[in-house]
Every structure is written in structure tokens, then in C-alpha cells.
Design goal:
The chain has three helices and four strands. It is of the alpha+beta class and 91 residues long.
Amino acid sequence: MKKAIITVVGKDSVGIIAKVCTFLSEKQINILDISQTIRDGFFNMMMIVDVSGANGSVTDIAEELTKYGKDCVGVDIKMQLEEIFTMMHRI
């Protein structure tokens, strides 16, 4: 299993989770865990996903997801492989 971490941050609006999940489904990316909060009108979500069966390279999908978040959802979306995320957030 090859895992990635996705973060989604922005002003809250209807359909953010649905749009992100639809995008991931179309790319054959399985959601393993998801948590989200809304505080003072701001949406924050973190997902752990399995990219083993993804349609395309993780780098290309990450770029598409960032663009999709900006252009279609109105939020900032980032995706990193789990090992990169872990190394960047190590103490």
C-alpha cells in the first residue's frame, strides 16, 4: 500500500468534501481516513489515502488536485506521499 496525505483548507462552502471525494474516486484513489473541522467559517480537512491503484503518477495527480481545488472548489489542496510528509514534520 502506498499512502499519501491530503490537506484541504479554505472558506467553508457547500460541497467541498463531495467535490474532493469525487475527484479522488475518478482517479481510483481510496480514502483510508478523513477528519475535518470548521472553525469561524474556515474549513480544514486532512485525509490519508491509498494511491497504489491511482490512474496516473502521484506527482501529476497532486498538481491536478491543487489546480482543481483552486479553480473548482475555492480551497487550497495539497497532496504528499506519506514518507515525504512524515520526514517534513519530524521533530
